[in-house]
Design goal:
The chain has 898 residues and is of the alpha+beta class. Among the domains are: 182-213 and 228-265 and 709-737 and 745-805, Multidrug efflux transporter AcrB TolC docking domain, DN and DC subdomains; 566-704 and 808-862, Alpha-Beta Plaits (2-Layer Sandwich). Helix content is 48%, strand content 24%. The strands form 8 sheets. Strands 1, 2, 3, 4, 22, 23, 30, 31 and 32 form a 9-stranded antiparallel β-sheet that branches. The protein has a 7-stranded antiparallel β-sheet with strand order 14-13-18-19-17-20-21.
Length: 898
């Protein structure tokens, strides 16, 4: 063959070619980043819209549905799912793989801008972000200060720590959790407003008008000019009390007469605790493509610098560091890779019974592995679990070609050929067979690299890495191996050479296999004489193996359970619970967790964007001690916790899986789609009752469980019309005073701006009676003062207590009830099969249907993609084998062994 002949004739050239691969591989290795998994761009967009004070149904009707219907026409759209909660709309838009997400984001933004005038005027502008399910915090730290007020710690975290971290290369965002920012509250007193004939709108306008500097232009004096500014800033929060809202009979009505001014903090809608102690946390997320380990190293450097420079008593403490587990995972795979290489070389030495042959063939391993780093770097991959697993798997394959070539060269030497001739003839004799074998191996792994779906994107680096490494091993087998065999001959191959103690032991080991070979010949002879029986045994073995799946003796799941030294719990208190109540219940569980010897740290979060701003929900992240220091594994601890958690009253806690990318999700998910919420509630309750006792099914719940208490204002249109009010006008007047409205900003002595929020005083917005007493400005005027007549809400409307869904989910423009659960003690496929069997017996009304989701859906899709790749691999192998043997039938005899 050309390569082997060239290498034998020009050994220096062959050596330099190999050295070039090694040098380029080492050069690439030094520039490779480290991450847990390949960086896969998920084609998702998230549209978030804040609608303060609106109920979930109002959010769905006024915001979510309108945006969904508009975005549904964007090209490349695959799925739309949304969640409408109190004051918040979240829409997740999934596109087909291959969609240019930047272009899709621009199209979505244009669609929303086109209907902006149809959306409520008092919503915050919709925020469109490129979402990635792996876009979870890679690092969490808490800011602690002994003797510091929470709002002061919040200011420090937001103004100092967060800004330093945001400047680190690769940091995408830093989210403040559990903080309370300083605010100036103007708390309206309804009785006083009514007494002086002042409406809340008048107060809001006065605060906005009277608290800021107003530029007035400039004046010129000779050759100079001066700017003119009307000073309106207030020096102290109590100065707000002297602001004039309006006049009555020439007498000014000051703000302090109708409102109470408080230097306070924003309304608490989230909270964070570390090991049960209140904390201000910062969650760090990386940009797409950034290296997790490098980013976290940068964050830790900044933390060290800040800890040395911050005020006494203030410290930054690491709560969660994903790079630690990534490093451990990569180290474990690297260790496995080295162990596999060492064992492979040992086995080769054991059977070849020659250290020269072992060195010649064993060199294929380091050369091929090091050269594979060149492909990893060239394709933009990182050193992650997938690429390193590819190298680990390839270890046993890489040396195959070299062994075959070396053994055939040795066979020619034993026949009396000189080493030069034996190297040429031995390589050329089996060159095509080795090439076909390598092509068959590549034919198996390349289809894996091009599987469909998200799983295909994850396996792309795997297939490319294996394929390149195998090609390099083929190149080494045709260059380095014959070259070394021609120059570095083995005296033992010629026979008669003295052997040492190890050589004699290896010879005895190999001789023991001769007897096994003789017995194997007997088995082959019997099989040839009894062909029907042999085929029957083979078919029976195949059928028996496949029946293991049909009988449910072998189950399946999307990802294997692993001990990654962390777990998480989701919390949910009764709908309508406050932040304080949910926090108290969460802390009860956190204290129990901290009492377990396997738990190193707990990080509890309540409410916030992660929970769609639902203050009755939260999560506890649990960091476990190292596996070597624990008596129970992660799975054992989770199983024990499932027995204990139901004992906590007033809260429902569930174990949630922390995914490969850091996010948490339920492995079992069923979506019941239909138009009516009431019917969805009824059918989801029936579905839960039908499957609740399925063996292995745990932590079952529905998204429609519980209803949030709400006050419904029924406007009497006739009475309202008599005073010039409409339903819309009543709603517009109530929303600012109940939900709060930003009227302006106030600067403190340091120049920091703080929001000024106008809202009813807490004691004036607690009951139906309070709400009914809210004054509304009518179109009628007082004849004496000429001011609008103030009308209490109860005069034109009835206020009653009712209930509403806590959240409303939608899937592809339809309402959906999501039923979620977990599995324990049985494989996922077995549990879901039993669930589907029972749900098939339910009679659903027309227009209602179940859709599978969660891990089971991922598993089914992945199995389909794998079968497609397997089919393609089998076809390629047949094409290669048929080309090698020149026969259409002979490859079938070999492939039946698959």
């Amino acid at each position: 063959m050309f390569l082997s002949d060239l290498s034998i004739k020009r050994p220096v050239l062959a050596t330099m070619m190999i050295m070039a691969l090694v040098v380029l591989g080492l050069f690439s290795y030094r520039r490779l980043g480290i991450d847990q998994f390949p960086d896969v761009e998920f084609p998702f967009l998230v549209i978030q819209t804040r609608y303060i004070g609106a109920s979930p149904e109002s959010v769905e009707r006024e915001v979510t549905k309108k945006i969904e219907e508009q975005v549904n026409t964007v090209e490349g759209l695959k799925q739309i799912q949304s969640t409408s909660t109190e004051g918040f709309s979240t829409i997740i838009v999934q596109f087909n793989l291959g969609t240019k997400i930047m272009n899709a984001q621009a199209d979505v933004r244009a669609k929303i801008d086109a209907i902006r005038q149809d959306l409520p005027k008092d919503i915050d502008p919709p925020v469109i972000s490129r979402a990635n399910p792996s876009d979870q915090p890679i690092f969490v730290l808490s800011v602690r200060g002994q003797g510091w007020a929470l709002r002061d710690l919040t200011r420090l975290a937001d103004e100092v720590v967060s800004r330093r971290i945001e400047n680190i290369s690769g940091v995408g965002s830093v989210t403040l959790v559990g903080g309370l920012k300083r605010e100036i509250h103007v708390l309206l007193l309804p009785d006083r407003l009514h007494a002086v004939g002042v409406s809340p709108d008048m107060v809001t306008s006065a605060v906005a008008r009277e608290t800021g500097d107003v530029p007035a232009g400039r004046v010129e004096q000779g050759n100079a000019e001066n700017l003119v500014r009307v000073a309106g800033k207030l020096r102290d929060p109590q100065d707000f009390t002297r602001l004039i809202v309006t006049t009555r009979n020439g007498i000014p009505v000051r703000l302090g007469q109708v409102a109470r001014i408080e230097d306070a903090q924003e309304e608490e809608r989230d909270a964070a605790y570390v090991n049960g102690e209140r904390a201000v946390a910062l969650e760090v997320r990386k940009t797409s493509g950034a290296n997790t380990v490098e980013v976290t190293d940068g964050v830790k450097r900044v933390i060290g610098e800040l800890n040395r420079s911050l005020a006494s008593g203030v410290s930054l403490v690491t709560v969660q560091d994903n790079s630690t587990w990534i490093r451990n995972s990569v180290d474990d795979v690297q260790k496995t890779l080295l162990e596999g290489a060492a064992l492979t070389v040992f086995i080769v030495f054991l059977f070849l019974n020659s250290w020269r042959s072992t060195v010649i063939t064993g060199l294929t391993l380091p050369v091929s592995v090091i050269a594979a780093f060149l492909a990893i770097y060239a394709f933009g991959f990182t050193l992650n679990v997938m690429t390193l697993m590819a190298l680990s798997l390839a270890i046993g394959i890489l040396i195959d070609d070299a062994i075959v070539v070396r053994e055939n060269i040795v066979r020619h030497v034993e026949r009396g050929e000189d080493h030069y001739t034996a190297a040429r003839n031995g390589t050329a004799e089996i060159g095509f067979a080795v090439l076909a074998t390598t092509a068959s191996v590549i034919a198996v792994f390349i289809p894996v690299a091009f599987m469909k779906g998200i799983v295909g994107r994850f396996f792309f680096p795997f297939g490319i890495t294996v394929g390149f490494a195998v090609l390099v091993s083929l190149f080494v087998s045709f260059t380095l191996d014959p070259m070394l065999s021609s120059l570095w001959y083995d005296p033992q191959a010629e026979g008669g050479a003295p052997r040492g103690r190890i050589g004699r032991a290896l010879e005895r080991f190999n001789n023991s296999f001769h007897g096994l070979g003789q017995r194997y010949r007997g088995v082959i002879a019997w099989a040839l004489d009894h062909r029907l029986a042999t085929m029957g045994i083979a078919v029976a073995a195949f059928v028996a193996a496949m029946s293991l799946f049909g009988l449910g003796l072998v189950g399946g799941q999307f990802m294997p359970n692993s001990d990654n030294e962390q777990t998480a719990l989701s919390l949910e208190t009764p709908v309508g619970s406050s932040v304080a109540y949910t926090s108290a219940k969460g802390l009860e569980i956190a204290r129990y967790l901290n009492s377990q010897s396997e738990v190193e740290l707990t990080y509890t979060t309540i409410g916030g964007a992660q929970q769609n701003n639902a203050v009755n929900k939260g999560q506890i992240y649990v960091k476990l001690t190292p596996k070597s220091a624990r008596q129970r594994s992660q799975q054992q601890l989770e199983a024990d916790l499932r027995k204990v958690l139901p004992q906590f009253q007033g809260v429902t806690a569930r174990i949630v899986q922390i995914g490969a990318a850091g996010g948490s999700r339920a492995p079992i998910e069923l979506n019941l789609e239909g138009p009516e919420l009431v019917r969805l509630q009824q059918m989801s309750d029936r579905a839960i009752a039908a499957v609740r006792d399925v063996p292995g099914l745990v932590e079952l719940h529905s998204s429609l469980e519980g209803r949030k208490p709400e006050l419904v204002v029924d406007v009497n249109r006739d009475l309202a019309a008599q005073v010039g009010l409409s339903v819309g006008a009543v709603g517009d007047a109530l929303r600012p005073v109940l939900a709060g409205q930003k009227a302006g900003t106030w600067e403190d002595a340091t120049g920091l701006a703080h929001d000024v929020v106008v809202r009813l005083a807490p004691e004036a917005r607690q009951t139906e009676t309070n709400v009914a007493a809210i004054p509304l400005a009518s179109t009628q005027t007082d004849r004496k003062t000429g001011t609008p007549v103030m009308v209490p809400l109860g005069q034109v409307a009835a206020v009653r207590l009712s209930g509403a869904p806590n959240e409303i989910k939608r899937l592809d423009l339809e309402r959906v009830a999501t039923i979620e659960g977990n599995y324990q003690g049985r494989p996922l496929t077995d549990v879901t099969r039993d669930i589907q069997t029972r749900l098939a017996k339910l009679q659903l009304p027309p227009g209602y249907r179940f859709e599978q989701g969660g891990e089971q859906k991922d598993f089914v899709e992945t199995v389909g993609y794998i079968l497609e790749s397997l089919t393609l691999a089998v076809v390629f192998i047949y094409l290669i084998q048929a080309s090698q043997f020149g026969s259409f039938l002979q490859p079938l005899a070999i492939m039946l062994s698959l």
